[in-house]
Amino acid sequence: MLRGIQSFAKRKSPWVMHLPCGGCNGCDIEVIAALTPKYDIERFGVLQKGTPRHADILLVTGIVTHQIKDCLKRIYEMAPDPKCVVAMGSCAIDGDIFNGGYGYAGPLDKIVPVDVYIPGCPPRPEALIDGISKLLKKIQ
Amino acid sequence: MKKNILLEALRSLANPSTTKYPKQPYVPTDGYKGAAEYDKDKCVGCGACAQECPPGAITYEDTESTRKLRLNYGLCSFCGRCEEICPWDAIHLTKKFELAVYDRKDAETGIDVPFFECIDCGRIFLPEPQMRASLERVEKTLAKYKIPKEDLVHLISVCPRCAFSVKNMPERRMFMRRLVEAKADA
């Protein structure tokens, strides 16, 4: 029974920490848009949190630069288990146009394990909702 | 003051501004740049999209019998350059946006185009649909000068190396001479 309650709670309150790593901020604007009443991602229990210690999901946008690589690893370790990572935008997945640049530290899944990839440049707020709901299905 | 707030609350209850997205499908407006997809009937496999793609999301790999064109959505910036450059109007940006995947290898689309073999030596040198399309184009031009198509088919179906071999050179020269004469007559 305790397990049932646990999984119910996990599904119904995926708290998200939004982590912009680098890039152009286009995806960040779409994340903000998804939090507005128009798209209202809080319908799924998603709350944005300012610290990784409160978060279940790390929502990483933008390319991983050399400067933020170590911080990202530390933030990932800070988040309590069980944790998920969502790579939002083409930059986080494979680097997009920044691929091969001097500041590019490699795709996100080489640094931390990623659960769901959301391609798009930037992905629509609807695509983000789609990605989060796919992630919740995976948790289930 | 309180009355206004109550009225606004009632209004938004009756007519909520939040989209009902996951329950109701959402179709983006016209001009939205979503995932690019190949048209299997039109693509000839020339690889122009792979050359022009700014982030290098489109790549092609030549195996023994097919050319494998692959578009990786993880690298794609959805700029639409491939659609602009495609000479055959075979790649289009669709309105698809639900691209979320669990494995990044799934985030791709592609097309396999068969190769055309040189009729003399059997070496591959051009995708087969491209061969057909270029034959059609040349046929139209030849019809103007009243030269039958059969004269050309052999010349165009050999790879560049065979075309300039000793065996094929006389036929090639003859054809060129006929073409120049026909042009002069016209």
Please give a structural write-up.
The complex is a heterodimer of chains A (140) and B (186). Chain A is of the alpha/beta class. Chain A has a single domain (2-139), classed as Rossmann fold, CATH 3.40.50. Helices cover 39% and strands 14% of the residues of chain A. Chain A contains five helices and five strands; from the N terminus they run H-E-H-E-E-H-E-H-E-H. Chain A has helices at 2-12, 26-35, 66-78, 90-94, 125-139, and strands spanning 16-20, 48-49, 57-61, 84-88, 116-118. Chain A has a five-stranded parallel beta sheet. The longest helix of chain A has 15 residues, at 125-139. The radius of gyration of chain A is 15 Å and the shape is globular. The model of chain A has no long low-confidence stretch (mean pLDDT 90). By secondary structure, chain B is of the alpha+beta class. Chain B has two domains: 32-115, Alpha-Beta Plaits; 118-179, no CATH class. Chain B is built from seven helices and six strands, in the order αβαββαβββαααα. Chain B has helices at 2-14, 48-52, 81-85, 128-144, 150-156, 160-163, 169-185; strands at 36-38, 58-62, 66-72, 91-93, 108-117, 124-127. In chain B, the strands form two sheets. A four-stranded antiparallel beta sheet of chain B has the order 2-3-5-6. A two-stranded antiparallel sheet of chain B has the order 1-4. The longest helix of chain B is centred in the last third of the chain and has 17 residues, at 128-144. The chains are: A alpha/beta (140), B alpha+beta (186). Chains A and B meet through helix 4, strand 5 and helix 5 of A and loops of B.
